[in-house]
Design brief:
Blueprint lengths: L1 E2 L2 E2 L20 H15 L33 E4 L6 H8 L3 H7 L12 E4 L4 E5 L6 H7 L4 H7 L2 H4 L6 E5 L12 E3 L5 E3 L10 E6 L14 H11 L14 H7 L3 E3 L7 E4 L6 E8 L5 E7 L7 E5 L3 E2 L4 E4 L1
Antiparallel strand pairs: 1-2, 3-4, 5-6, 7-8, 9-14, 10-16, 11-12, 11-16, 12-13, 13-14, 13-15
Helix pairs in contact: 2-3
């Protein structure tokens, strides 16, 4: 409509946020101009228009929303400094030791200054996608959840692209599969010793049974002799009359030793696996107590040889013997 030559725009025929269609809707500036114009002409205060404030609560403006969500894109690179250890680095980044070791294919705790380490943003496994990988296969392989893998890596959008590194949240890297070798004894007979599936296949050679001086009464060259020798070196001397490895748990318990599932450095690990059982010595224990490194005779490096695992292996399934 027009008032004294001033054009005023009204509402549409439909109601707008509760404003009736026969009402004139003005903003404050237009209203003031109209009031002044009518006043100039008539000399009275204008009531020709009704000013209505719009309800804008239902109008949504597109916004950038900040989020603290982390994804596979948040993998960091850390440069090792003097005196840093895997434990201290893991603590600084709030992840566990295995997460860092798995991400960098480390088989020991040894770090050198200026080493570059990939640090995943959460506990789990850093995996490079290979041809044939699927979310289902990776979830099964790393004991993880399919939905977590999809969400964390935007796989619902990008899929799994070959060659891309992704994070498997809360995944665990499976222990290596080890074959079952047969080792020849020092005499004409032979025996078969089958390592448990959790035993690591890579190791550091330590010594031959003829190259160290043992004071135990166990037969030289056998796992029992090494276990007695090495445990004593690490502050856990054992007795000399427990027989074959498969009877060490009962012999130790009768002698008042701790025999149980909790490992510690220097403890003898004992298993009834095999015809005479097997014993070795715990060399290291992971921070959460679920993994060990161990040394043994006749297991890792063959008959008459002592060696220590490079890899962490599962601590489950053994008795541990110590004072």
């Amino acid at each position: 409509m027009s008032v004294g030559g001033l054009v005023v725009l009204g509402a549409s025929s439909a109601d707008v946020n509760g404003v009736a269609s026969n009402q004139v809707v003005l903003d404050n500036v237009a209203q003031q101009q109209l009031d002044q114009h009518i006043s100039d002409i008539t000399g009275v205060e204008s009531t020709a228009a009704t000013v209505t404030d719009y309800d804008t609560s239902s109008v949504t403006k597109q916004q950038i929303i900040e989020t603290n969500d982390i994804t596979t894109h948040d993998v960091l690179t850390h440069t090792v400094k003097d005196d840093e250890t895997i434990e201290s680095i893991a603590r600084d980044y709030g992840v566990n030791v295995n997460t860092i070791k798995w991400a960098n294919d480390l088989t020991s705790d040894t770090l050198a200054k200026d080493d570059k380490l990939s640090i995943p943003p959460v506990d789990g496994v850093l995996h490079k996608v290979e041809d044939g990988d699927t979310v289902k296969k990776l979830a099964e392989k790393y004991d993880a959840t399919e939905d977590d893998i999809i969400a964390f890596n935007d796989a619902e959008i990008d899929g799994l692209k070959e060659g891309r590194k992704i994070v498997i949240p809360n995944g665990t890297k499976p222990d290596p599969v080890v074959s079952s070798p047969t080792y020849a004894s020092a005499g004409t007979s032979s025996y078969s010793y089958t390592p448990r599936p959790s035993y690591g296949s890579s190791y550091n050679y330590m010594t031959h049974y003829t190259a160290y001086s043992s004071t135990s009464t166990y037969s030289r060259g056998w796992c029992t002799d090494w276990a007695a020798y090495r445990a004593a070196q690490l502050g856990n001397p054992v007795q000399n009359r427990w027989g074959n490895a498969n009877s060490w748990d009962s012999g130790a318990a009768a002698a008042g030793y701790y025999v149980g599932s909790k490992p510690k450095v220097g403890a003898v690990f004992q298993s009834d696996y095999g015809w005479a059982g097997h014993v070795g010595v715990v060399e290291a224990v992971s921070a959460d107590g679920t993994k060990i490194k161990y040394s043994d005779m006749n297991g890792l490096a063959g008959w008459g040889n002592a060696a220590m695992t490079k890899d962490w292996v599962s601590a489950a399934g053994y008795d541990y013997i110590y004072r």
